[in-house]
Amino acid sequence: MTLVSPHGEYGGPVRVALNQLAALRDLGHDVVLAGAARGYDVIPSEVDGIPARLFPARTVIPGIGFAGVGSPALLRSLRRHVGEFDVVHVHAARDLVTLPAARIAQARGVATVLQTHGMIDETAHPLAVPLDAALTRPALTAARAVTYLTERERSSLEEVGRGRAHLIALPNGVPEAPFAEPTAPELLYLARLAPRKRPRQFVEAAARLAPEFPGARFTLVGPDEGEGAAVRAAIDTSGYSDRIRWEGALEPARTGERMRQASGYVLPAVDEPYPMSVLEAMSAGLPVVVTDTCGLAPAVRSADAGFVTDGELGAVVAAMRRLLEDPVGARERGERGRALTRERFTMPAIAERLVELYAR
Questions:
Q1: For a Cys staple, 161 with which of 95, 165, 210, 331, CB 3.0–4.6 Å?
Q2: What is the pTM of this model?
Q3: Using H for helix, E for strand and C for coil, what is the string for the chain?
Q4: The Glycosyl transferase family domain covers which part of the protein (predicted)?
Q5: pLDDT of residue 142
Q6: Annotated domain spans of the chain
Q7: pLDDT digits (tens, 9 = 90+) for 155-206
Q8: For 81-112, how does the pLDDT look when each residue is reduced to its tens digit (9 = 90+)?
Q9: pLDDT band for position 12 (50/70/90)?
Q10: Band of the pLDDT at 320, cuts 50, 70, 90?
Q11: Topology match between the domains 12-173+347-358 and 186-344
């Protein structure tokens, strides 16, 4: 795993990995989470009850975000111990943690499964071209399987791997969650405050709706990934800072509990491959608002589990308004989303599928 931290800066991939590891352990398998870590006073030996081997993260190349993260200590440990494992499941991205880790395992003859979370796509970025030649493409083609979430991701992996990667569809899954029991109308944004997630649009929409719904609250929860100052400024100038609030980051183990306090979930992000936060919201029975570039948009639309918008501010406002003005209908949409996750995104089924991939 590229980065594990107490406030979940790396987002969905860590949640996916922990869900998978817990479900695999329930099937009787021995599991370990390995990765780079930062933000801890003392690096933990387990995360959410999962045994962990975590090593200090280092910024190897500054200015390029997670892609510049490395962990020499992790790679040294892998070289010594990777032969102890039957399979290494790599949550891969174009970075200096997961790609070298995959190649170390492959060089030692240990089976690898790569899961890319939509993070390895076609690009002409000057740093990606040599990285793909040296690490990305060899890692993809040597893997026992490379999983994808959407047809768009499959197409990208086909291109990057030049048709030589063994591609397998695998959805994300979520554990079954208790049903949400909000005490007041609250629309929640729970994600990193990063430009692509568009937290400012959530604040702008909330500012338009606040005078219409004086009993409603609009809350952002998540770590700052570049938009924090702009979000604070937008809240301060909205005139409704008592009801539009950013609560800051929350440790991943507590996000489910926080989500169940809300009455609806809004993620205005663009080009979001398969957001775990949306799955978690639906699992808790929350109606959701997403954009049509979200990988889960077809599922949300077909199940009538919320609203799919074109991403324009007016459309997002209209969708949020419908959740607030019709709480009974919103609750029914949430119940349909909960049923959808039980039918298609259960962790036991995902774990069984993973075991099949590992045994190939």
A1: 165
A2: 0.84
A3: CCCECCCCCCCHHHHHHHHHHHHHHHCCCCCCEEEEECCCCCCCCEECCEEEEEEECEECCCCCHHHHEECHHHHHHHHHHHHHCCEEEEECCCCECHHHHHHHHHHCCCEEEEECCCCCCCCCCCCHHHHHHHHHHHHHHHCCEEEECCHHHHHHHHHHCCCCCCEEECCCCECCCCCCCCCCCEEEEECCECHHHCHHHHHHHHHHHCCCCCCCEEEEECCECCCHHHHHHHHHHHCCCCCEEECCCCCHHHHHHHHCCCCEEECCCCCCCCCHHHHHHHHCCCCEEEECCCCCHHHHHHHCCEEEECCCHHHHHHHHHHHHHCHHHHHHHHHHHHHHHHHHCEHHHHHHHHHHHHCC
A4: 182-337
A5: 98
A6: 12-173+347-358, 186-344
A7: 999 999 999 999 999 989 888 888 888 889 999 999 999 999 999 999 999 9
A8: 999 999 999 999 999 999 999 999 999 999 99
A9: confident
A10: very high
A11: yes
Between 179 and 32, the higher pLDDT residue: 32
